[in-house]
Write a structure and sequence with these properties.
four-stranded parallel sheet; six-stranded mixed sheet; FAD; flavoprotein; FAD/NAD-binding_dom; NDH-2; globular; alpha/beta; about 475 residues
Length: about 475
């Protein structure tokens, strides 16, 4: 690989930097670029930054949407050289340095760039079986969280109307596929809901008898944590009543049952369950796949790309990849890596403007945390390993610190303090929706397909 080198943009006008993705990497990058003498465009398919580590708390009724998200325009309004655009990147012309994006009404527009920073992140992976998504939503977006909330609380409502028997039992059985942090957090929260929030609110059913089944192909949950903490997590989950099934893969998901196959080749097992949640894997978003194809970037099975030590694309020093999409040095797919990558890319732009040599990216591991239930969480940072109440306090401090906006921090902290004293969940509201949704031209298509050939340029919003 070549040595990291500076890229000299045209000097006839201010450098135009395009950041694709408003997650942790894109937001932190845009903030840093907001202090430089450049013009920055932040393009995202959502109009807000979402604090993904707390999505499961929105899904399970603890926090509201507003507490874990913030408008990108509001977040960036103090940076006069940064503008946010709503659109989904779908194509790239590296020769013309133009990105084509789609508006929510499916019309197209283009954005020029001198420097491009890809921070589009990952989406849920169903390992070649996208049909599972219909019955087992993932946990990546606000829409996912609201879908899970609706399925979760509606299951209890339906069970309340059924007589005792297998059908009622299937509505009171919840399956979580994936034993990583998100899967563990969801499973723990569902059991906490059944034993605390809903325990005394129904007449025909006993929510405490609801089953929560967690399936994972590994030998233990939370494989990214130390074995000691993983054992503590296992013990806590079992005490809550979560049924752990390790060493199995979920091989089929239908509306009323889930099929799992043991890794050792034993017979398939079938579980009657009306609610299944998927947290088992991730893969690159469609534009990232198109990006790698156009630039001929080597990528792995999940779509993570081989980049230079400074996170630039081989042969294209003006293009960076940050966050989950980076496929070098075994960088973890966590928020902290995305934040640091975003700040590093901004630093590279600054050094280019100053005529200095870029530095290679060095990730500093600040630790990992996972919430299980009230008073039980894990925190691992170097030699520090905390579990139980101390881990719970540390987890809360970290998440409050990284929430965007002072108002969100204050309201989230107040909500958490209230849940300590009371068992209720304040944001359990859900809408049933319609089986035939009304026509809405301002909603992203369900299966947006990226174009495979160059498109005619639409109105150039960057001009």
């Amino acid at each position: 690989m070549r040595e990291a080198a500076g890229y000299a943009p045209a000097v006839s006008e201010r450098t135009k930097v395009l950041v694709i993705g408003g997650g942790f990497g894109g937001l932190f990058c845009a903030r840093r670029l907001g202090r430089l003498d450049v013009d920055v465009t932040l393009l995202d398919r959502a109009a807000c930054h979402v604090f993904q580590p707390l999505l499961y708390q929105c899904a399970t009724g603890t926090l509201s949407i507003g507490q874990i998200s913030r408008s990108l325009r509001e977040e960036l309004e103090q940076y006069r050289n940064v503008r946010a655009l709503l659109g989904e990147a779908v194509d790239l012309d590296p020769d013309e340095r133009v990105v084509t994006a789609r508006r929510p009404d499916e019309s197209m527009f283009t954005v020029d760039y001198d420097v491009l920073i890809l921070a589009a992140g990952m989406q849920q992976s169903y390992f070649g079986k996208p049909e599972f998504a219909q019955f087992a939503p993932g946990m990546k977006t606000l829409d996912d969280a609201l879908s899970i909330r609706r399925r979760l609380f509606c299951a209890f409502e339906i069970a309340e109307t059924l007589p005792p028997g297998p059908e009622r039992d299937s509505w009171l059985t919840f399956v979580v596929a994936g034993g990583g942090p998100t899967g563990v957090e969801l499973a723990g929260q569902i059991r906490e809901i059944t034993t605390r929030a809903l325990a005394n609110q129904f007449h025909s059913i006993e929510p405490t008898e609801a089953r929560v089944l967690l399936f994972d192909g590994g030998e233990r949950v939370l494989a990214g944590f130390s074995p000691r903490l993983a054992v503590k997590a296992t013990r806590t989950l079992e005490e809550l009543g979560v049924e752990l099934h390790m060493g199995v893969h979920v091989t089929d998901v239908l509306s009323d049952k889930v099929t799992v196959s043991p890794k050792d080749g034993g017979p398939d097992e079938h579980y009657a369950a009306r609610t299944a949640l998927w947290t088992a894997g991730v893969e690159a978003v469609p534009f990232a796949r198109r990006f790698a194809e156009v630039l001929d970037v080597e990528s792995d099975r999940a779509g993570r790309m081989a980049v230079e030590p400074d996170l630039s694309v081989p042969g294209h020093p003006e293009i960076f990849v940050i966050g989950d999409l980076v496929g070098r040095d075994r960088l973890p797919g966590v928020a902290e890596n995305a934040m640091q990558g975003g700040m590093h890319a901004a630093a590279c732009v600054r050094r280019d403007l100053e005529g200095k040599k870029r530095k290679p990216y060095r990730y500093r591991d600040l630790g990992s945390a996972a919430y299980i239930s009230r008073g039980h969480a894990l925190l691992e940072a170097g030699p520090i390993q905390l579990a139980g109440f101390l881990g719970w306090v540390g987890w809360g401090v970290i998440h409050i610190a990284f929430l965007t906006g002072v108002q969100n921090r204050v309201s989230t902290l107040a909500t958490w303090l209230m849940t300590i004293a009371r068992a209720s969940r304040t944001d359990r509201t859900f809408l049933l929706g319609s089986p035939i949704p009304p026509e809405d031209p301002y909603t992203w298509p369900t299966e947006a397909s990226a174009p495979r050939h160059a498109m005619p340029k639409a109105e150039d919003v960057a001009s």
